[in-house]
Amino acid sequence: MTSSTNLIELYDTTLRDGTQGEHINLSVQDKLLIAQKLDEFGMDYIEGGWPSSNPKDEEFFIKARQLRFNHAKLCAFGSTARSVATVSSDPNLLGLLHSETPVITIFGKTWKAHSVKSLGISDEENVELIFRSVEFLKQAGREVFFDAEHFFDGYKDNRDFAIKMLLAAVQGGATRLVLCDTNGGSLPHEVTDIVAHVIAATGVPVGIHCHNDSDLAVANSLAAIMAGATHIQGTINGIGERCGNANLISIIPNIMLKLQRSCTFVEHLTQLTSLSKFVYEILNMPSNTRAPFVGKSAFAHKGGIHVSAVMKESSLYEHIDPKLVGNHQRVLVSELAGQSNIRYKAQELGITLPEKSDVFKNIVHHVKELEHEGYQFDGAEASFALLLHKELGNFTPFFEVVETKVHIESSNDARNVDQAVLKVMVGGEIEHIAADGDGPVNALDKALRKALLHFYPEIKSIKLIDYKVRVLEEKRGTSAKVRVLIESSNGRDTWGTVGVSTNIIEASLHALQDSMNYHLFTLKSSPQAG
Questions:
Q1: For the chain, how big is the Rg over CA atoms in Å?
Q2: What pLDDT digit, counting tens, does each position of 260-285 carry?
Q3: Domain containing 348: what range?
Q4: Inside any domain, residue 376
């Protein structure tokens, strides 16, 4: 069965269900910022939290009254009343009304085992509880969505009971029936069959709310759409309890680009990647580089044969144009690289390579040798650019580190201060410099800058913004090689460099030297430098 409408509603629960994930924590201000971003992107509904469950969510709804949404409707979330006798005075329902949101979403038991064992009530009592709770909120002038908790498990256990609970919500005035795969254990073919039956049995717009415990939340959400669901719930980046919720970042482009359906207010799908990154940044979490559609690796090509084909026709190895979701194509340089990788990467870096030359073969051979030694140029494109320029004969290092000494201090009496002593030669002149630092690498960085400032005052603007160490050949223990990746910035641009050695100080020095050389080379070779 297919939907009679082409329009799909998007309901985001990042601020409520998403925050139930491990290591996920949002302040009130964080939630306000994300809510505004979700509205800008084009969400239909934003679930802000459960106001009766904690003071933070209560504060959020109070402050959210000052927000002015262009499209989205804010929703408060909660449960049915505790008992039929106290519906009108139930603290949870009163808290939902006090949130002053135009939409309220409440969940109720649709799995008979939960109704009997958790609530200890009969089937008819549960029907009455759902009906009265929805009716009470509806009569207060709110639109009410009903989340059918554990619906798929409940349906498979006792179909008649599950449907009866849905009908109770409809009779109470619910305008959406949201079928929840709360345990995340359903399969797509089950979702398809059950959603189709519910639509036929209820006559109310049906939604889907999936969890990812079987790694099928996105697939199950899409299966529900294909069966006729028109309301999709999920979170940004799939965050949520246990294995997470259905990932809207994956669902939305599949809806719009693959199923050719429309999302009510999403006009610019190109904002998808930035939305994903924005939420990760607010959460203080690293982006998932392998995330479909928006990840850094989503359109990255490493194998030489793949790259050769992509350069001729990108659709041969890409399921969509990455620009459609605000991402971009990347070609990696590695031991798997061919001449196509080198040519593509050089073009991306703005480096002109001769058409007929042994330079391609030489670079490919050199790269493979370096990768075998432990080098990695993904994330260290500045080092790769210097390698290309050196092979072309238009780059000579601006300085040479002649001698390095690092003194590491260890004392229980006072704060440790390490010292680096460098001899650096520039144009035949040697600068002998010492510098203290918080750790040997910091001391090394300070000493190198101090030595070069006399010759190249331009490096004063460079700042080290990231430093990563990876131990290679771990089974060799303390004699193993290490790979150091550093990221530098001059306030305008950022660039990455790499160094490899069995000595972490030496590896760090190689990466630092590349960083300084790259900055100086780009300055000297820019048109303005002339």
A1: 29
A2: 999 989 988 999 999 998 999 899 88
A3: 300-370
A4: no
Q: Does residue 263 lie in a domain region?
A: yes
168 and 247 in a single domain? The answer is yes
178: amino acid identity, one letter: V
What mean pLDDT do residues 456-462 have?
Answer: 92
Q: Which residue has the tokens 């069965």?
A: 1
- CA 80/CA 146 separation, integer angstroms: 9
Q: Give pLDDT, residue 530.
A: 43
Q: CA 9 to CA 265: how far, in whole Å?
A: 9
Q: Which amino acid is at 15?
A: L
Instruction: For residue 38, give the H/E element and its range.
Output: helix 28-41
pLDDT at site 304: 55
Residue 337 CA to residue 306 CA, distance in Å, equals: 10
Question: What is the DSSP-derived secondary structure letter of residue 218?
Answer: H
Residues 317 and 258 in one domain: no
Contact of 501 with 370, CB cutoff 8 Å: no
Question: pLDDT: is 119 or 338 the higher one?
Answer: 119
Look at residues 418, 413, 415, 419 and name the one whose alpha carbon lies nearest to residue 433.
419
Q: Is residue 6 part of a domain?
A: no
Residue 118's CB: how many other CB atoms inside 10 A?
10
Query: Which of 350, 370, 390 is the endpoint of a domain?
Result: 370
**DSSP 8-class letter at 254:** I
Question: Over the stretch 409-458, which tens digit does the pLDDT of each residue have?
Answer: 766 555 667 899 999 999 989 999 999 988 888 899 999 999 999 899 99
Q: How many domains does the chain have?
A: 3
Give the domain CATH number at 520: 3.30.160.270
